Amino acid sequence: MKKKILACLLILFPILSLGIAKADTEKTKYVIASDSSFAPFVFQDSSNQYTGIDMDLIKAIAEDQGFEIEITNPGFDAAINAVQSGQADGIIAGMSVTDARKETFDFSDSYYTANTILGVKESSTISSYEDLNGKTVGVKNGTASQTFLTENQSKYGYKIKTFSDAASMYDSLNTGSIDAVMDDEPVIKYSISQGQKLKTPIAGTPIGETAFAVKKGSNPELLEKFNKGLANLKANGEFQKILDKYLASDSTTTSSTADETTIWGLLKNNYRQLLSGLGITLALALVSFAIAIVIGIIFGMFSVSPYKPLRLIAEIFVDVIRGIPLMILAAFIFWGIPNFIESLTGQQSPINDFVAGTIALSLNSAAYIAEIVRGGIKAVPVGQMEASRSLGISYGKTMRKIVLPQATKLMLPNFVNQFVIALKDTTIVSAIGLVELFQTGKIIIARNYQSFKMYAILAVFYLVIITLLTRLAKRLEKRIQ
Ligand code: GLN
């Protein structure tokens, strides 16, 4: 067993380290991670651009202090992970300063003070925490609201349901699968001001100051620049302007002005974003499948080799990869390994979500392809190999000239099948914040709550693309046969 584990680490390590190049020490640009939807702090406007207090603030500070930023919006939980694993230098996401977080983050000066508050449907009869007994409260994973709910759960006897993004949480409240949500007060109040049919029957509870954060001990100069910039913006009135823009009662920054209630309106307003998501999905599927075929064939050939060590290596590879859920594999590669490397070397890993997603998908498909290759070769009667070898023809030549041509024909339909599975599996890696087609849809829903129509659009997108690609593959298959 120990040998097996050692061998699989030996196999995995070179593959994983491919994506990890040396990080440069001198920083000219900072990667800032944020939430995907946390209006009025961060959200997409009707032209699909990220705006909000946090976005305006970090941009103004970067300009004031003369540094460049690249913003990613993977969602709160994912943004926290990104900073912890060194994928991002800082996080600005309406983040509350809590004692627990001070253990792992360094915080800037505060720029806001927020409460957490309970939101229920307008028609709900819940009017106190006691009324929550036996009911289900939704909350975003990793948030201060979640901590509050967990701490008070035994007192009030509610069930907690955790969500990775705001869209699915508010959707669940609208459809009645949860009875209440817990979120930052400005966020719920803002969505009410935007026409959401919610109310807040109980007064909010303080959860701390809102601030910008970096991983504890890293990027101290960034924190310093943030503080200086914030002070400057406060002094020159710029900061107040940003707050007023999003919080004033007559604020006109509606998150969605265009008609997004019809399928046509949704498509018209979001087609660019959807096509770019589709592009990422296709790139992920095609690149990872191409890599998977190479790795899969190598391990597949190993598994029918006359040499036992090769067979053993192939067996371990297939067992390990098939035994780990794809989502965990992706999270491990994107967050786990960089976190580990950073803690050892202090170097930030430049491996991005696309590379991590591609590696995870490649490894996953490769394990299944190895099995397809093994099955295909095994399906060719052994007599053929024996007959050929007894005529004095070498193993390699027999493989190439006699066994493989027949085996390939048997494998082809399975390859097509595996490709379709790989394409569908791209949705799973959206968990690491990669904005492929599925994540694109979720971000759009976070803005307009049109989950029925949006998911229908996504389903049709996948259906069309998979049907087209399968047809194409079938045609290729026929030609080869
Ligand atoms: N203020 C809350 C927290 O820090 C929620 C932040 C968010 O969801 N973006 O936990």
Would you give an account of this structure?
With 481 residues, this protein is α/β, with parallel strands linked by helices. It folds into three domains: 29-110 and 211-247, Periplasmic binding protein-like II (D-Maltodextrin-Binding Protein, domain 2); 114-209, Periplasmic binding protein-like II (D-Maltodextrin-Binding Protein, domain 2); 263-479, Orthogonal Bundle (MetI-like fold), CATH 1.10.3720. Helix content is 59%, strand content 13%. The protein contains 17 helices and eleven strands. Strands 1, 4, 5, 6, 7, 8, 9, 10 and 11 form a nine-stranded mixed β-sheet that branches. A two-stranded antiparallel sheet has the order 2-3. A hairpin with a 5-residue loop joins strand 2 (43-44) and strand 3 (50-51). Helix 10 (263-303) packs across helix 13 (353-378), helix 10 (263-303) packs antiparallel against helix 15 and helix 10 (263-303) crosses helix 17 (451-480). The two termini are 42 Å apart. The structure holds glutamine. Residues 35, 38, 76, 93-96, 114, 140, 143-144, 184 line the site of glutamine.
